[in-house]
Amino acid sequence: MSELAFFIDYSRCIGCQACVQACEECDTHRGRSLIHLDTIERRDSVQTAPQVCMHCEDPICAQVCPADAIKQTAEGVVQSSLKPRCIGCSNCVLACPFGVPKYDGGVDQMMKCDMCYDRTSTGRRPMCATVCPSGALAFTTIEEIMRTRQGRAVNDWQFGDQHVRTKVFVLVPTEVTRVHVAVIPLSALRRSQPPADPYDVAALLEAH
Amino acid sequence: MADERPRWREDFPVRWDEDNYMTRRELAKFLTLGSGLLAGVNVLIAFIGLTGRAPAPPVTRIAAADEVAPGGSFLFRYPTGDDPCILVRDASGTFEAFSQVCTHLSCAVVHQPDVPALACPCHKGSFSTRDGRPLAGPPTRRLPRIVIEQRGADLVATGIEV
Question: What is the pTM assigned to this prediction?
Answer without folding.
Answer: 0.60
